[in-house]
Design a protein that fits this description.
The protein is of the alpha/beta class. The chain has 13 helices and twelve strands.
Length: 349
């Protein structure tokens, strides 16, 4: 980063996904934040016991809580989830949602600064009564990793037995009701002329909402629809390069890593019409209600000009979600917190 901070900042980046389940967006957020800080020349450590200027917590489990308690007024928490994110993600979420909501409120309130990954999350924090200062700092990705490379498209298609001229619709994410798996399968049934691929599995196994129903649904799919299971994140750009559009029918999101990754790959974006997306992605996507996905897919299949237009919109939009602007926003947040703490410690006389 060209405008590195004048003062040297050390950061303890805390994530309980290290050594645990990794096939989900919170782990991706951790890896991309780590990469952004390292690229910016920040002295960043992971889950360290050594004292640092800033403790930046990415997960809300017990290790994250311990880090908050030990931070001594220098704790930043990234808010990836709000209580409604749990419904349709984890088993029996509605039953234990009041307890989870109270814990999430308690956790975020222990921070000295909360970074909301979208305006919608910031609004959710306000509804929860969080009085901690909040900044909107969206997630980011290494854009260059997702730029299609020569031969990726043909190699992946050959490995899957997909013809070169097939129209491929792709989605990535955990297999859970919240992600709209049922809509994806239904759209595939209504568009037999296209090939549908879903990357992602159920990393939380039996804790996944509707585990048996999801397992059954992904086994009984039309011939043009395939669930490929968990794919290493390093391999995802190759699969995106093999596709012609993204179909992301998720019913609830706080950001949407899948969307920015597909945009960086130059794919037209077909998304459910959710309020969270408009301030993040402007007009760079085709917004659909439940029954509108098949028509959107067919329009993209048959209209090369429409495909080119939305691919261009996606590429333009995603530039704001690169690692460099992400690191800049993080450093500004860290400096704000440190300067505020110094002002409190040394009040003007």
């Amino acid at each position: 980063m060209d405008d590195a901070p004048a003062r040297r900042i050390s950061v303890d980046l805390v994530s309980e996904t290290v050594g645990g389940a990794t096939g989900h967006g919170v782990h991706t957020a951790f890896t991309q934040t780590l990469a952004a800080l390292e690229r910016a020349g920040i002295d960043v450590r992971v889950n360290t016991a050594e004292p640092c200027d800033v403790t930046h917590v990415e997960t809300i489990g017990p290790a994250g809580l311990r880090a908050l308690r030990a931070s001594r007024g220098h704790a930043v928490v990234t808010a990836h989830i709000v209580p409604e994110s749990l419904v349709g993600s984890f088993a029996f979420a509605r039953a234990w949602l009041p307890i989870a909501s109270a814990y999430i409120r308690f956790f975020y309130s222990r921070a000295d600064l909360v970074l909301a990954v979208s305006p919608a999350v910031a609004e959710g924090l306000a509804r929860m009564g969080i009085s901690t200062p909040v900044r909107v700092v969206p997630n980011a990705i290494d854009l260059e990793r997702f730029r299609p490379q020569p031969r990726w498209r043909t190699e992946v298609r050959a490995s899957l037995g997909i013809p070169d001229d097939a129209f491929v619709v792709i989605s990535t994410g955990q297999v859970q009701p919240r992600k709209g798996v049922d809509t994806f399968i239904k759209t595939a049934r209504q568009c037999p002329e296209a090939t549908f691929l879903w990357l992602g599995g159920m990393p939380f196994k039996m804790l996944t909402a509707g585990f048996r129903r999801m397992a059954r649904a992904t086994r009984h799919v039309p011939e043009n629809c395939r669930f490929l299971g968990e794919v290493a994140h390093e391999e995802v750009p190759k699969f995106l390069a093999a596709a012609d559009c993204l179909l992301f029918p998720s019913r609830q999101e706080t950001f949407g890593f899948t969307i920015v990754e597909a945009a960086a790959a130059g794919l037209p974006l077909v998304l459910r019409d959710l309020e969270v997306y408009r301030p993040l992605f402007d007009d760079a996507y085709i917004a659909c209600q439940e029954d509108g996905f098949p028509d959107a897919v067919r329009r993209l299949m048959t209209d090369a000009g429409l495909r080119a237009e939305y691919a261009s919109r996606a590429r333009t939009m995603v530039e704001r979600y690169g690692l460099e602007p992400h690191a800049k926003a993080l450093v500004e947040a860290y400096l704000w917190l440190l300067e505020r703490n110094e002002a409190i410690a040394s009040p003007a006389t």
